[in-house]
Amino acid sequence: MTSNSGVDVATPESPSIPGLRFRRYRDDSDYASIADLIAAGHLADGDDYLPDATSLRIDFEHTTDLDRSRDLLFAELDGMLIGYGSVSRQVRDGVAVHVTAGMVHPAYRRRGLGRAILRRNEARLREIATGHEDARREFGSWIGDREAGARELLESEGYRAVRRFFAMIRSDLGALPDAPVPAGIELRALEPTDHRAVFEASNEAFRDHWDHREQTEEDFVAFFSVPDLRPDLSLVAWDGEQVAGSILTFVWTNENEKLGQRRAWFERISVRRPWRRRGLARAMIVAALARVGEADLDAAMLGVDVENVSGALRLYESVGFTVDDTGTAFRKAW
Question: Domain residues of the chain, as ranges?
């Protein structure tokens, strides 16, 4: 939906910055502006997440029930984007988590803009909540731990840290550990005909993880629409005609160029319950590392829930990954 696109948004708690304007989503050119703003903020913070306009567009266009004309907020000064906010409602582990996100340009921080965006986001989330009869609701947010100002803001507004996450890296892609593939399993590169089976198997595998969100058809489209997905570096573990596990590998071109890196990201690393405790995850990761090295890339990255019940952190450490960065999930009582 794009009705009322670009119109001004009344923001009662707007900071005293002459010429500041809050508006709604206008058109697809907004994605490039958001990407530039995130890059400015994250580079200032030392955070490596630098999405491009294409990945942001795919994300926003395929977020279930997202109304871009009402759920995105843009703060502009003389036509320059200096802050933005976004909201979404996600049912996770039976709780309706009303998620707020945003960014303020480094040159305009500590002036009340982030707080104004956060409170406007929360007001919009309360509007969204009126359309649902949820037994349990919470506000939620996620930030990298290097975003010190964002953490102070969230905590001052009543958010509490509930879970920690690591971004891990293996920079040396040589001398890989031994990791035999379990008997009866075949590892193959991702093919277009595999998409549906891999998607459903991954969704099933993550159901017993903390904060699981049941995947939708919009997620399916988004998973396999990103140009930076590398099917040749992704792996599917087959047991006959069944998907036992998988790894989706992305090489984020824009991020690598801005950071001067040549690295891959392993996403959605999963093994279904009947195939766990047999060394399959280890075999998949080592095989994927080998492929990344053969593709003339320098490093592999992945993210992990520090308290993951399947022991993922210990597994990743055992195959040579070390902590590169940390992040935190926050919640706030409704």
Answer: 20-158, 167-326
